[in-house]
Design goal:
It comes from Mariniflexile jejuense. With 777 residues, this protein is of the alpha/beta class. The protein contains 31 helices and 25 strands. Helix content is 42%, strand content 15%. Strands 11, 12, 13, 14, 15, 16, 17 and 18 form an eight-stranded mixed beta sheet that branches. α29 links the parallel β15 and β16. The protein binds adenosine-5'-triphosphate and magnesium ion (MG). The site of magnesium ion has 4 residues, from α2.
């Protein structure tokens, strides 16, 4: 047997070396599904399957890259390069680019990101004189998106009275008209939005049998990770492509289906066996990721769901620490708990920042966590916010480049036609839009032929429009000889962008300049890197495609060691030694918007299951008794999900009000003091019960001990510890967090002396005396 195959257990090996036919692996979190997919690809290649014939679809491009790297170490880099791997969107964008003309799109079609779509929809709503409070552009976009993902085209929409009725009932009778206009405008601009990448692929495969055949023959082996979260459109693509050879392997976990709100259909996994003949079903039961406590706790949660496939998940890993549940008074306290716990773990276990992840239900929750991490100087990174490529200054540069390859691109044009300012005002732009719609041409074409049109624009402005056209055309000429980096460098200089951002001397302006520089660096890398990648030509179009589809998760700069902050949705498939799940409060998690039906609540529960199963070593669940939401302090109750976990796996820590004051952070109030010599007590009962009207922040009365002596700042980390020599087995001690305990063992020497302490609440802990804040009683 090949050596790498010995890195799989028997249950994993079976599907890995099952070469042909349809198969599904249904298994719980951390059981090696992704690992099996990876090794299976390596195995297929070792069996002589040409990597060109293998298509692997993953949840993120980052996951695809990691799989590719792993495969490269097994079969060699040059072979692995030729694999087709990536997200549905990135793989099918490539195919659409090859086949674009069949659908009437230019080869260099633009990909509109969500921001572009939003802007276009907002302007259509405005042009149609609709009430923007009723026609909220984000809601309209999500409605259009769900039509597209269910393959409901504009024509199908207007043929379906039920849909029209539903939108009319929702006070949006013009939704179909907006949809129609939006689709036409995208098409005229030579642009596809994210959903089009799937919708148009479906159209391509149904309308052109010869194209379908071509790709069926090409992708003889198809593999799909996270199959439980495919939507209808993705499902149909996989179904069509795999129809000829039926060598399809999908892996998934129904318990981790968390995208129903975006159209994912759990039935895709449940019905797989009906879709193909002789489906082999595999199950993996051993979890390799997490401790027993975490695995068992996760099992006890998902047990509460009625809709699920029966699955066993167990682990041979250590018992591990119990899941720590922490209650805070406010979201600020919660942030401080997270930061101080990370800090303590780091110094006690010498682990990097990247071992920690903080997961939350909604993006807004990151702020309190960020504040606390910043105070502690703990580097962090937020994933899933505005991606680098969506920042204004970056989008400005990219918009110029988008116009170079596709001057019809309406959103790019509107963005930069008057930025930096060139005296082309909104009225002019509005007139151009109207004219372009009338002539059924792009705005750029109208501008180019402005003298031949009847657009009411004065001659001075006409000249400015002409200048803009000439500038873009000169970039197009340059693009024929220059590489992406050279072109972008030229564009940023000659368009006036650099000057504009330099002029702005504020710190924000400086950051913007740095970001543009980083973009240019990235382009340089791209130009260099393209020489090594087989499935790329290194064109500007390709660069723009990569950035349009790059999620924040993909743009891993890899250079800094940071704590990861992200929503649970984004954490799917990932793993971290230490995981904090914060904001476990009713109405927040489970979300107030998802408690209407049992199936919604079950999706929230699956989300909690996903969150908890990201943890390898230690999980923390935190909640606050009050929290700022929408600018107001609201009381909250602990999430029902905490109660649903079997108690034996939990450790409820000392309530926050008993240790709220943290001398390591707040010592500057006193000047430098020795941390373990400060006593404090709450000025009043600090627990806010539900229903109390207490809204004042709780104040603490600090009572410094009488013998308080200033100590040097370094004393908390040097070896001349208080306890040198005088802490003995049998001593009673008090710890800031764990409370009272008895020393039962002392080991080590010098700066590494550790004490094993049996705490009255919270079990036995081994603490490094150098850092532990103990007080002998
Ligand atoms: P999820 O459902 O969260 O996506 P998964 O089923 O895809 O999880 P993997 O990510 O493939 O699980 O594996 C979880 C962890 O266990 C990884 O770190 C992986 O390397 C490790 N692992 C899986 N199988 C084995 C094995 N046979 N021996 C050692 N480690 C393993
Ligand atoms: Mg996985």
């Amino acid at each position: 047997m090949e050596k790498y195959l010995s890195q799989l257990n028997e249950a994993q090996l079976e599907p890995t070396i099952q070469k042909d036919g349809p198969m599904i692996i249904i298994a719980g979190a951390g059981s090696g599904k992704t690992r099996v997919l990876t090794y299976r690809i390596a195995y297929l290649m070792s069996e002589g399957i040409d990597p060109f014939n293998i298509l692997s679809l993953t949840f993120t491009n980052k996951a695809a890259r990691e799989m590719k790297d792993r495969i490269a170490t097994i079969v060699g880099t040059s072979e692995a390069k030729n694999l087709w791997m990536g997200t549905f969107h990135s793989v099918f964008a490539k195919i659409l680019r090859i086949e674009a003309d069949k659908l009437g799109y230019p080869t260099n079609f633009t990909i509109y990101d969500t921001q572009d779509s939003d802007r276009l929809i907002a302007s259509i709503i405005k042009e149609m004189n609709l009430d923007k409070d009723i026609y909220k552009y984000k809601q309209v976009r999500s409605r259009i998106s769900s039509y597209k993902n269910s393959l409901i085209t504009v024509r199908a929409y207007f043929q379906n009275p039920e849909l029209i009725e539903a939108d009319t009932m929702a006070r949006r009778p013009r939704l179909g008209d907006i949809y129609k206009e939006y689709v036409e405008r995208c098409f005229k601009a030579g642009a596809m939005d994210f959903d089009d990448l799937l919708l148009k692929t479906n159209e391509l495969l149904t309308r052109f049998p010869e194209v379908l055949m071509k790709y069926q023959n090409r992708f003889k082996y198809i593999l799909v990770d996270e199959y439980q979260d495919t939507n209808h459109s993705q499902y149909l693509i996989v179904r069509a492509l795999s129809d000829k050879f039926q060598n399809i392997c999908v892996v998934g976990d129904d318990a981790q289906s968390i995208y129903a709100f975006r159209g994912a259909n759990i039935n895709n996994i449940l019905n797989f066996q009906k879709d193909y003949d002789d489906v082999k079903v595999f199950r993996l039961e051993q979890n390799y990721r997490s401790t027993k406590n975490i695995v068992n706790a996760a099992n006890s949660i998902i047990d509460k769901n009625q809709t699920k496939l029966d699955k066993v998940v167990w682990t041979a890993n250590d018992e591990g620490g119990k899941i720590i549940v922490n209650r805070s008074l406010t979201d600020g306290d919660e942030g401080r708990f997270v930061a101080s716990t990370i800090w303590e773990n780091k110094i006690q276990h010498h682990v990097p920042n990247s071992d920690f992840a903080v997961l939350y239900r909604t993006n807004a929750q990151s702020r309190a966590i960020e504040d606390a991490l910043r105070k502690r100087d703990i580097p962090y990174r937020i994933y899933g916010g505005l991606s680098f490529y969506q920042r204004k200054e970056i989008k400005d540069v990219l918009s110029y480049l988008r116009l170079v390859i596709n001057p019809a691109d309406e959103e790019a044009l509107k963005r930069v036609i008057n930025f930096p300012a060139r005296g082309i005002g909104d009225t002019t732009i509005d007139r151009l839009v109207v004219a372009a719609n009338g002539y059924k041409r792009s705005i750029f074409e109208v501008m180019k032929n402005i003298d031949k049109t009847d657009v009411n624009i004065n001659s001075g402005t006409k000249a400015k429009l002409q200048d803009f056209v000439t500038m873009i055309e000169s970039y197009q000429v340059l693009n024929q000889t220059a590489d992406v980096f050279e072109l972008a460098e030229h564009v940023t200089r000659t368009s006036g962008l650099i000057r504009e951002y330099k002029k702005d001397g504020t710190p924000e302006g400086v950051t913007k300049m740095e970001n543009i520089e980083e973009l240019l660096n990235g382009m340089k890398d791209f130009v260099e890197g393209q020489k090594e990648i087989a499935d790329t030509t290194g064109s500007l179009a390709e660069f723009l495609e990569d950035v349009a589809l790059a999620t924040d998760l993909d743009a891993d700069k890899g250079d800094t060691d940071h704590v990861a902050l992200m929503t649970i949705h984004l954490a799917k498939g990932l793993e971290f030694p230490y995981v904090f799940i914060v904001g476990l409060e009713e109405d927040l998690f489970p979300s107030a918007m998802s408690m209407g039906t049992r199936s919604e609540l079950e999706e929230e529960r699956r989300l909690f299951y996903v969150a908890l199963t990201r943890a390898e070593k230690q999980a923390y669940l935190t909640y606050a008794l009050s929290r700022y939401r929408w600018g107001k302090l609201v009381d909250s109750e602990p999430s029902r999900f905490i109660e649903e976990i079997d108690e034996q796996y939990l450790e409820i820590t000392t309530p926050i009000e008993e240790r709220r004051f943290n001398p390591m952070l707040d010592a500057d109030i006193f000047g430098d003091v020795e941390p373990n010599k400060i006593r404090f007590k709450p000025a009043k009962q600090a627990v806010l019960k539900k229903g109390t009207t207490e809204k004042e922040p709780v104040k603490f009365q600090i009572t410094p001990p009488k013998n308080l002596k200033p100590v040097s700042a370094s004393s908390s980390t040097d070896n001349t510890n208080l306890f040198d020599g005088n802490l003995a087995v049998g001593n009673m001690v008090k710890h800031m967090r764990f409370g009272m305990g008895e020393v039962i063992k002392i080991e080590g020497a010098g700066g590494d002396v550790k004490a094993e302490i049996k705490f009255q609440h919270g079990g036995t802990k081994k603490l490094l005396l150098k850092f532990a804040k103990l007080e002998v009683i």
